[in-house]
Design goal:
- The protein starts with 5 loop residues before the first strand and ends with a helix.
- A three-stranded antiparallel sheet has the order 3-4-5. Strands 8-9-10 form a three-stranded antiparallel sheet.
- The N terminus is likely disordered.
- It has two domains: 33 residues, no CATH class; 322 residues, Orthogonal Bundle (Cytochrome-c3 Hydrogenase, chain B), CATH 1.10.645.10.
- Helix 4 runs antiparallel to helix 11 and helix 6 runs antiparallel to helix 11.
- The protein is built from 15 helices and ten strands.
- The protein is of the alpha+beta class.
- The radius of gyration is 26 Å and the shape is globular.
- Belongs to the complex I 49 kDa subunit family.
Length: 403
């Protein structure tokens, strides 16, 4: 019944056989045109405070529920791939380490591995182990940022202070060895820029131990919070077949049960010798909580890998960390593809050379670009209130999308 508006009565059919069973009716009551369903188009971004940088989401809403979602990218596009073509093989490293500014060392690494593969160049053993160590320290720095910032997006202020406390010790040793705080520029074609400062391995080991000691505190604070559990458990479930279809990789894919990690499945650097320490963390739930748990456990394993690298470096005799290169470095004509397990997922570098000192083409396959596309499948059917929780759990960097 309604005081104003209209009421429509529809015969739904007869059910039941007991005496007295009759017909059931469905009544829709509304006020004026409010009885009719109307979709709303809502733009989240490109400057909305709950997005990660300059990302735009175009949502179609049916009431409080999302019916369509389209990630609109390109607002930060730097044209890096085109800029690669007018810089020599030494200069392109400075561009490559900036698309995911939380994983700068890993970004540099993929480029130099591709060039070294084209040249057929062997890197000194000491440089191989140092690269592996620094890549894992960079992985921890990346993960700690998201472990602290994700609870912040759900209303938890304290975890980010703990995460930054743990980050600072590792940041300090990386800055000491490379001279850069965010953009390290420490990789070179043929190895690394220079050897370690005196006493650095001891300081690095202390920083790793300090970060490991702080992880249980962060875990208890976040995972032990019932509000965080309520906002993330069963929310934003990414099915493994969807992850595979969109090329989702890294912690997000492994949280959905996609058991794939290049460090184990196609070893590079020294990962083939670290099989006993390397543990590929997976979950099957595929929800926001699982993605956070994978990131947390993967951080702990990265610290174990860093310790294993430090142990191996202590056994190695002193030696070079790079190869002597000609003044003008030219890659032979041809093409190659190198991929690495970056902190956020698989990064691929397709290098085409015409025998010049600059690449003819260097195509970058970034993890965040593929990962974010899965939102068009994941968000429909979810509530607007859960959108920020889902978005934050995808752990992306916008520069890694708009490369």
């Amino acid at each position: 019944m309604a005081e104003t508006g209209s009421a429509d009565t529809e015969t739904a059919g007869t059910f039941g056989t007991a005496a007295g069973a009759g017909t059931a009716t469905h009544t829709t009551v509304g006020v004026g045109g409010a009885a009719e369903s109307t979709d709303m188009v809502l733009n989240i971004g490109p400057q909305h405070p709950s997005t990660h940088g300059v990302l735009r989401l175009r949502l179609v809403l049916d009431g409080e529920r999302i019916s369509q979602a389209e990630p609109v990218v390109g607002y930060m596009h730097r044209g890096a791939e085109k800029l690669f073509e007018v810089r020599d093989y030494r200069q392109i490293v400075v561009l490559a380490n900036r698309h995911d500014w939380l994983s700068a060392f890993a970004n540099e690494l993929g480029v130099v591995l591709a060039v070294e593969r084209m040249l057929g160049m062997e890197v000194p053993e000491r440089a191989v182990w140092l690269r592996t160590l620094l890549a894992e320290l960079n992985r921890v720095l990346n993960h700690l940022m998201f472990l602290g910032s994700y609870p912040l997006e759900l209303g938890g202020l304290t975890p980010i202070f703990y995460a930054f406390t743990e980050r600072e010790g590792l940041q300090r040793v990386l800055e000491e060895v490379s001279g850069g705080r965010m953009h390290y520029m420490f990789n070179r074609v043929g190895g690394l820029k220079e050897d370690l400062p005196a006493g650095w391995t001891g300081r690095a080991r202390a920083a790793v131990a300090e970060a490991r000691a702080g992880l249980p505190r962060l875990s208890e604070l976040v995972l032990g919070n019932e509000v965080f559990q309520a906002r993330t458990r069963g929310v934003g479930v990414l099915r493994p077949e969807t992850a595979r279809a969109y090329g989702v990789s890294g912690p997000i894919a492994r949280a959905s049960g996609v058991d794939f990690d290049l460090r184990r499945d196609e070893p590079y650097l020294a990962y083939g010798e670290l099989a006993d320490t390397l543990r590929v963390v997976t979950r099957t739930e595929g929800d926001c909580l699982a993605r956070f748990e994978v990131l947390l456990d993967q951080t702990a394993n990265a610290l174990n890998l860093a310790d294993a690298c430090l142990d191996r470096l202590a056994e190695l005799p002193p030696g070079p960390v790079n190869q002597r290169l000609p003044k003008v470095l030219k890659a032979p004509e041809g093409a190659t593809y190198a991929w690495t397990e970056n902190p956020l997922g698989v990064n691929g570098y397709y290098l085409v050379s015409k025998g010049e000192k600059t690449p003819h083409r260097l195509k970058l396959r970034s993890a965040s670009f593929n990962n974010i596309q899965a939102l068009r499948e994941l968000l429909p059917g979810t509530l607007v209130a859960d959108m920020v929780a889902i978005l934050g759990s995808f752990f992306f960097v916008v520069g890694d999308i708009d490369k």
